Amino acid sequence: MKITTILSSSCFWLFVLLNSANPCATVFYKGGNEKTEELEDVKRSHFPGGFLFGVATSSYQIEGAILEDGKGLSDWDVFVHKNGNVENGDTGDIATDHYHHYMEDIEMIHSLGVDAYRFSISWPRILPNGKLGDVNAAGIMFYNSIIDNLLVRGIRPFVTIHHGDLPQVLHDRYGGWLSPLIQDDFVHFAETCFKNFGDRVRYWVTINEANLVSEFAYEMGIFPPGHCSPPFGNCSKGNSDTEPLTAMHNMLLAHAKASKLYREQFQPKQGGVIGIVVNAFMYEPLTDDERDKEAANRALAFNVAWNLDPPVFGDYPPEMRRYLRNELPKFTSEERLLIRDSIDFLGLNHYGTLYAKDCTRSSCACSGSACVAGGDRAIRGFVSTTEERDGVLIGEPTGLPICYVVPRGMEELVDYIKNRYHNKPIFITENGYSPPQQEDQLDDLLDDKRIEYHKAYLASLARAMRNGADVRGYFIWTLMDDFEWTLGYGVKFGLCSVDRTTLNRTPRSSAEWYRNFLRKSPSSNNNNNNNNNNNTERRPTFSFI
Ligand code: FCB
């Protein structure tokens, strides 16, 4: 075990009692590099009435039934069957078999007492052919049943139209996200969703994490279609310096066209809201040097604002234009008008914080799990990232190689987003904890660390809100252990565990904690009337449209 790991784990979970008069109210948490953070005993009443608490999942990660009832193949269905693409040769062929267990899963969601459930629609289950052609009636029925069963239990469906699983035929036909032809095919899929489900769905996300998909699929080559070039990796196809930019450009325009269609043809009647979700790490400068401070700002621009500036301001971040010049695609003036202001809210999937180091003037050879090859290239903004400062980890490690527990990162990130986007409404669409894989799990169901994680991140979020951020909801990733992409089933994020042999679901302690956290306490002075299970009290209030 690395010395840094030992050091950080021994101090991370050491909560020092500070306020002896009220020992439960305030404790201090010591993170990497001796930074201290205040942890409060966070309560639901710290969040405003109408704030949505939920859990999140995605279609490929839970559904299984990959060729049932007329579904077509997704790119993930194909990718996982190629040797070496996923740890242990795991696949999502069965996943948690949610397709057959969805009623049981909805009961589980209901028992948590959440306000909302975020899930995604499998594109090839609805349009097996990827584009025009027959709509698969069985697919429509499946999601109709989920939506109806959520609503009768007073749970709001928060629907992601596309979360990773692209019809394979669209790669075969024209190269998936690399072709502008995909934009209209996506709009057709989105329109099919609005038409069939929009009478009951009030929260829509067009695309999940376009930034992460561009990077993982077209720069590092670890998501389908597995494109990359050196030094990022050795793939049989791809150009890591340019393809991520093209893929992102097409995803952004696909989003913008779908959003325009929704706003013109559906929103006035259906009254919902539409947004986009980004993978949002926080970056702190590695040193006090001005160059590292600028590097941290560039890391945010090249990762987060890359995805969010266009739908808010109509163009890519100036920080990117400065370093990428003509490599960065351009929006025509028409496209600019189309994409500008194309979201009602922005969704943040937040899992970690890293240190950023400038590579414009210093050499950026790096090692360690958070080091991404190519930090010294324009596509990465000449920034390298690291999890260590002076041999001390930024936070306790988790099951994901680049994610460390750094609760303050939530407040810092939300603050950054608030300032950059003039306080546009925010949802935390994912935040979650998976224990390190090698950790001895004496009892996998007693997941105290997950509970501490959510308490700490929620407290940090509450601080950001007290500082004025307009945050409307928080979704835990995830309801139950699922297929975690290239890491397969080894990484466990679930509030509920899933036995891989029997597929039995069992709630962990964290599920019990969330249920209690969400329960309206009689002494609470919160005027929130959305946290009981009375159907009639759960009418959506869309104060921001
Ligand atoms: C996010 C993905 C989600 C899940 C979590 C752990 O990047 O959106 O599907 O895998 O990571």
Automatic annotation (TrEMBL):
Keywords: Hydrolase, Signal. Pfam families: Glyco_hydro_1 (PF00232). Residues 519-545 are annotated as: Disordered. Residues 525-535 have a biased composition (Low complexity). Transmembrane segments: none annotated. Coiled coil: none annotated. InterPro entries: GH (IPR017853), GH_1_N_CS (IPR033132), Glyco_hydro_1 (IPR001360). The keyword rRNA-binding does not apply. GO terms for molecular function: beta-glucosidase activity. GO terms for biological process: alkaloid biosynthetic process; carbohydrate metabolic process. Residues 536-545 have a biased composition (Basic and acidic residues). Residues 1-26 form the signal peptide. Gene3D superfamilies: Glycosidases. Belongs to the glycosyl hydrolase 1 family. This is Beta-glucosidase 18. It comes from Coffea arabica. The gene is LOC113743801.
